[in-house]
Amino acid sequence: xxxxxxxxxxxxxxxxxxxxxxxxxxxxxxxxxxxxxxxxxxxxxxxxxxxxxxxxxxxxxxxxxxxxxxxxxxxxxxxxxxxxxxxxxxxxxxxxxxxxxxxxxxxxxxxxxxxxxxxxxxxxxxxxxxxxxxxxxxxxxxxxxxxxxxxxxxxxxxxxxxxxxxxxxxxxxxxxxxxxxxxxxxxxxxxxxxxxxxxxxxxxxxxxxxxxxxxxxxxxxxxxxxxxxxxxxxxxxxxxxxxxxxxxxxxxxxxxxxxxxxxxxxxxxxxxxxxxxxxxxxxxxxxxxxxxxxxxxxxxxxxxxxxxxxxxxxxxxxx
Length: 319
Hints:
Blueprint: H1 2-26, H2 31-36, E1 57-61, E2 65-66, H3 75-88, E3 93-95, H4 98-107, H5 116-126, E4 130-144, E5 158-172, E6 178-194, H6 207-230, E7 234-242, E8 245-248, E9 261-272, E10 278-294, E11 299-306, E12 313-316
């Protein structure tokens, strides 16, 4: 008897359950919603970027600045180590050690946000294509109901969340222009803390929760920053120019091979979007070059046509 009544009730409620299903999946009630968020789902082909450069970009990350006052001196350097390790997993990038980047920053007294001029200086001294400057911009613990719990506040507990945000800015060391300026967000769910439907307000986050939130933010910042790096052509500065031969400070370390073509382009102008990312509009081709000899950390190129001067930046990308 009871099973028949339950069956009728379930049948009558089925249209309502089907109508509410999308709300449950999108509203933060479980693993489906966490994975479905744009900044959380980085699986398979969604996390794969096609780089325009056939040569690996050489990248360095400065120690992160603590803008929220965590009070732990090693927090910034440790984050740069973890972020460097994450970027090193990408086969299109060659990462400089965090220790070397830390020394470059301390020797120049850099304690605030990096300037384009400083990015160019560090890039030239360490032979980098890109310099990244990061900061811890938010660490906050919140007690609240999200998703469907907001509707059923008298029947559900509040959830504890640790929201962490890292800001990461990537500079092209040839021009000082920003090629990526993104924020990585980490939301660590800590579980139910309070069943009072009217209880609100933040509490002091634990070190474990902070570590988990920042780790998630690192993952998110990595994928978001790849968008800018993937569209950054490989550029090399001409160190020496003798006759029809030029020398650059890159070689087998970034995957250079004989026969690879480089161009010397006239820079027409640059434009910037609303978040500060700049794009260079290339001008006419001033010269064409091909790699003739490849060493471990340097290479020679033959000028096929046109003119190149010492100090010029030549670039290689797949068109």
